[in-house]
Amino acid sequence: MEVRRAESEREERVDNPSMTPGADPRAHSEGGRWRRMDRGLRTALLVSAAALLIHLIPLFLPRNMPEQELAIARATPSAEQRVHFLLPLREHPKATPADLREAAELLLDGAPSEAYELAQEAERRDPNAVETQLLLARICDLERMDRCVSSALERAARVAPKDARPDLLRAELQEKDGDVAGAAESVGRAYGKTPADPLVGLRYVRLLSAAKRGDDARNVLHALEGHIPRARLLVEQGRVWTREGRDAEAAKLFRKAAEEDPRLAVAFFELGLTWHRLGNEEAAEEALRQADKLDLADPKALAALCAMQLKSGRINDARLTRMDLERRFSGQPELIRQSCSIP
User: Is the pTM of this model over 0.85?
Assistant: First the structure.
């Protein structure tokens, strides 16, 4: 009996070191903690390895579908690296025109020449796709191929005569080149095709106003009544008056818009700018601060406030506004530098 009891005690000491005479119980506690940490670390490593394997699997599978190349290219950071995966799609028999257009889009910023080759192949496979012609026009504009831009836009209008997109793209390119009157004409054609689209209508209004065609802009705004909220309509009407230098009339419209919709930040922003031009600095600051409060993600109101404070010689106030800008919009240093450069 004594022998069996001694053997049993030895087994317990082996299983539980803290029972060993002279053993420190803290050592057992520390050992358990390390074992638990080891298990957690092993679990984390296994999860990470599994995730890595899932992402690597597509690279080792036979790649005979364009979708696989596109998926890899989307996960690739630069256009130069994407070229390796995407350019071979030109000769891929299963690549659809939509696949080729997406591949070209992925190469636009950094490899426009290769994007052009892919877009040309998309056109060869489907000559009647207006999306391909619009893409070709954008690529040609990047490459400064003016004749190519015009040809692509003409083909787009020919294959889709009721589609407003060719006119809108033409207007975008014209406006970028400083041809405001031409852009207004192009958007006018687009508006004629989509009179119920308020976004096209508002763009048309702004271009008409910029081209000093205020009466035409007001007529379009009148036609848009019922298609956009009244407060927004009042803001656009006020902007037309502002373009014509009639700030007193514009201020009334902006104030009315703010009353109609107290949450419309742009109404307070435009009101603040107008009060400033009219010399009412206190009302201008109040309106700009309200605009900032209503749209905390937009730095324009604070930037305008800082520029206004600098213009009126309130350097200390401008410093405080700049500190607020730097704290909230640290990712936009150029905007802060341009609008709030403290002497």
Answer: no
